[in-house]
Batch of 3 targets.
Target 1
Amino acid sequence: MSAPGTLAGVAWPRIAGQTRREQLLALLQQFAEAERWPAGLLQQHQLRQLALTVAHACRTVPFYQQRFGAAGYRAGDALTPERLRDLPLLTRRDIQDAGAALRSSAIPPQFGAVHENRTSGATGQPVQVTRTALDALIWQANTLRDHRWHRRDPSLKLAAIRALPPGDADPPLGVTAAGWGAASEALGPTGPAALLTLNADVAVQAAWLRRHAPGYLLTYPSNLAALLAHFARAGERLPGLRAVLTVGETVSAALRAACGETLGVGIEDVYSSQELGYIALQCPVSGQYHVMAESVLVEVLDAEGRPCAPGETGRLVISSLHNHATPLIRYELRDHAEVGGPCACGRTLPTLARIAGRSRNMVRLPDGSMHWPMVGFHRFREIAPVRQYQMVQRAPDAIEVRLACDRALGAVEEAQLGEVIRNALGHPFRLDFAYFEGELPRAPNGKFEEFVCAIPAD
Ligand SMILES: [Zn+2]
């Protein structure tokens, strides 16, 4: 990546500079300008860059050669919004089935070293995607942009509680590091960091946080919810904490409110995926999510494949502008989001008002229709001492209800809970109750989903 000012295959943003530091500064400078461009100009640049990736895919990726050829697209064709919508969608299933056929036979050497990225897949359907050093460079630039937007003080301590392999940061001590990590330290030194595995008991996590007294806490929303409940019960705060940074799951309005109430700080959320990198950052002014338009082109589509208008919720279809190793073009992520409106901050990057969640978190009724489940949790504790719940839909008419309770429930309590749940879900499902001591188990990647539809999709 040393060509001065240009890199074959990259029209935008420009990769300039000899050192990584110079390249990152050049990218940040371009981000600061592009994020205030008129929307039309931004989209024009996105399509110009995506056309290069699509052409590369048509020429060197067997999967796309076949598929885009059948759709009438030829390498080198210009890309318009309409032309883009004619290209077939790429599903998670396609990625799994295509295997090596989705990988470029001629990854441009100027894109740098190639690395495999295997997603953990909360539903046990991992996908394998190859990325290059260029993707990693843009990932780092977006990390730095996130810090800048939120005016984070890099001299403070960062404490992170995340899913880690056993032995990496075990309780009760976890591990410490001199800095926040390669991306955050790329432009200068940071304060220290401390890392603890998510498997630690919540009381152990809380004691560890009090000991480290971090300026920033990074964790998953579901783990934050458990920590907030603990701190609220204990009547404690974390003096010195400036903000909680969340990743990996959707953040509810209730969680934001609880965080402000219990810890006196806000949540700064990031929407990303392992395959695509950063997708959107929460705006420091409005709380909406701004799309990282210099690296991904995001479409929000309704059931008929038409673009959703502001205020409408649809499925996310995302194209990676630069991945020349495993091109991801019109990748249907199975997440849903609400299209946002113009932002008070003055940034013109496209907005998402809300990340609604994943298709697998929707309940499916026997007639095939799907909706976001309401389960009536606010009423559970009027009936029985339920601490935590999770529901897994096993069949069109049956749902397993997993409960972590202070004690086993009686038949009357179960029947009353069942009535609340069936009413809230809007269908007389058969409910199978299962009881757990302590915390409910998480997926191997550390994520916790309150409602999972486990009926195989497509
Ligand atoms: Zn904004």
Note: Residues 283, 285-286, 288, 290, 343, 345, 347 surround zinc ion (CB under 6 Å).
Target 2
Amino acid sequence: MYDILIKNGVYPDYSQKAFIKGDIAIKDGKIVEIGETFEEAMQTIDASQKIVSPGFIDIHMHEERFLQNGRQYDIAEYMLKMGVTTCLGGNCGSARQPLTVFREVIESLGGSPVNYMMQAGYNTARTDMGIGHYNAATPEQISVLAQKMQEDILNGAYGISFGLEYDPGITFEEIMEVLNTQPQKDLYVSAHYREDSKGALRSIEEMIRIAKESGKRFQISHLSSCSAMGQMKESLEILNQAIIDNPRLQYDTYPYIAFATTIGSAVFDEGCFENWEKSYENIWVTDGKYKNQFCTKEIFEELRQNDPGLRVVAFVMNEDEIAAAIANPISGMIGSDGGVTNGTGHPRSAGTFPRVLGKYVREDKVLSLIEALHKMTQASADRLELYHKGRISVGCDADITIFDPDTISDGATFESLDIPTKGIDTVIINGKIALKDNRIINDRAGTFIPGPYMK
Ligand SMILES: [Zn+2]
């Protein structure tokens, strides 16, 4: 007897670039058969008129800070509710907790709402050592940082992330020194670029060079917030050629015209508004006494001075450029860049994947359904060397998201993350039903997935 049988749906077959009709049987966490008729199952799901997709993989997000507000899981629940089954945290140089703590908490809780992978956050380690954001690290400090990164990799981190914009003191040479001392040739490295808008092309060139000279697998993070201020067309031309020349290079992007970060961050240093050709009124406050308001010059300066950790949203990107980064046929994956603090944050934390399928596929028709699914399942799985995920195939992990392509849409807004997503019917993680009709049924079906170099 099977554990779960999904009947009457269609699933994407990326090799044929087509949706195939076929029932899917699950047992012991794996897809065990695909075809027409099967034996009995403990549970049967009718997927008529629905797509049975591999679970969405969020290749770029910001993980939990455990026990904030006494809640065990915050963003992982939003991930699950938007159909994500596996996500990669520790991005933009920022690891919110030591990797060993993160891993142990998930293990002690007996699982997590989604499968979690984690990177070593370079900027976090650098700041922990007392190196100022604008200061260069000494050769001794760089050597200690390189060792710390290696320790995290041996403790199960999947790769290393850098946040170049957040610590302008990090030089090209510092990055190369850290990467060249990591013995793993195939190491995954991601980076939040050094500068956006007017500095976007320069930043992309720098990352292409790091990728080439280090030989590591290099991911340019959230291209949208780097280049969607007038530089996307040229950015994509340069990137697509660079990716053809060096297939170890890739990028991810998210479907919103605003980015979110802390107001004290170097992103908002003097000159930012001139670069974006925007002003204080484009900055939305997500928490505190000016919650759900746009800034004025006075509010912006007050918050930057007194509450630098406060999360704000900057509406500074152009819609057609966001669409171009998503639809790019040569390359690119979908990553939310979501991060939740005190239950608040950018709606991308809760709406990214349904938004791509609802707005960009169904409404705006900037890419086909199967292309979009590929960018949020198999492309990301392969990038993360999860060859048993991201596809509907016998023997693969039963991480599955069943949705209605006619109704799927994001609910989350800049005021609330809790407006439900529409159209997601069922989410299965490791062969267990984790979500049904927007209700979390099992918030422990996910696990921590260690990187390939864990001791
Ligand atoms: Zn970032």
Note: Residues 55-257+317-384 form a domain with the TIM Barrel fold (CATH 3.20.20.140).
Target 3
Amino acid sequence: MSHPLLAGDHAPGHRPIAARAPAAAQLGGAGARLLAGPAPEAGWERLAGHLARLGPLDVGRRDPAQLRSMVAQSGLLGRGGGQFPTAAKLETVASRSRLRPVVVVNASEGEPASRKDSVLLEHRPHLVLDGAEVAARAVGATEVVVYAHRARRRAFGTVAAALEERRNGPFRFRLVDAPPRYVAGESSAIASFLSGSGALPRSGAPVAVSGAAGRPTLVNNAETVAHLALIARFGPAWWRQAGDDRAPGSTLVTLAGDVASPGTVIELLRPLSVGELLSATGAAAPARPAPRAVLIGGYEGTWVDGPPATTLLLARGAGALGGVQLGCGLVAVLAEGACGVATTARLARWLAGESAGQCGPCRIGLPAIADGLESLATGRSTRSDLRHLWRLTAQVRGRGACGHPSGVAGLVESALGTFAAEVEEHLRGAACMPATRGFPLPVVRRP
Ligand SMILES: Cc1cc2nc3c(=O)[nH]c(=O)nc-3n(C[C@H](O)[C@H](O)[C@H](O)COP(=O)(O)O)c2cc1C
Ligand code: SF4
């Protein structure tokens, strides 16, 4: 089955397959790009199969400036959350020629409910590794670090096996186990970890200028890197046929929560509304009530009310999605009847525990925000407590050495707005538990 909404053109050399449900949503299907190729049941695509399907890349023979120009023409925006133009990062790193740069594939996917990077590594590791070679050649690096969590065992093991197949290549690859903490996926934390210190974010020069051991360091998300492999092979004009002008290229999203198959990863060839996506993947059967709300972009994303969410177009790029960021691509559906306030309280408590604890807003502000939300969700807050909660989110926003406090502030403020009716009930004493029905609740670590 290949749903027409998900179908599109395919690259020269792609042999689109007739994928089977439920795998269709997860991998392959006519028109898929990153996820084109053998069905998921076939396991990961070995190097020989990958090259037979897509053809050779011969990165060593490509002109670095020409590769950078192709990426600039593609308009690729980073898929790790910040939507930063990839070409600009490549130029910065390439221009720092005094020290040999390092390329890092950020495959740490610290968002517990996100699966897009893991699915890529588990099924198309050579596409990611090809893209890493393109990035390395484009910036003059010979060393590539694949930064991933060993705890995501299948993805980690598959990359290790795929790297074995490239042992004699011109690039030196290292697979590094990322520390198990949300902020360990932030780029300056990665640079710090690779320099021999803790995986803690730091302020100062961007890592593209001074990163791992002071060397210019290109940190890109695994999906971003996989796109580089396609751009270098098939050209920016073909690549831009997917997506839209603001954010060209296909994009991966992970469906979670009250959906038919939580954890399904979909490749969007053009912006789709949440409603279209849910129907296309069988997640919104006609008898099913509309979702109460949808959390878009990850745990530090934005809650959107159910009815408007279903018509919201999922797209990247400035001004897309009505200003809501697609972030790590998570689309998590909260069932009708579930409490968004209590659910957000759980997310906030988890996020507070995941900080590096080195800046005031995280040490003091985030636990206080989690306390405030828990008190509200259990019917113990007054209107004055609620005002204090709003003040706290405003106080942590934009502070600290990384974007973590702002991310939590954004999540909580969107919850207080989207669940305004529930907030009123809680102020009258109603007490709720976090959502069940499949919503991906994180497990809070005890200190
Ligand atoms: C707290 C925090 C956690 C992050 N975790 C991840 C992560 O798990 N994976 C990722 O690719 N980017 C993560 N990022 C974003 C990275 O700092 C960086 O912007 C990204 O890897 C760059 O890749 P891109 O330009 O391809 O998007 C995180 C950022 C913050 C502030
Ligand atoms: S803002 Fe928070 S997560 Fe970021 S570096 Fe400071 S303590 Fe760590």
Note: The chain has three domains: 44-239, 251-334, 340-427.
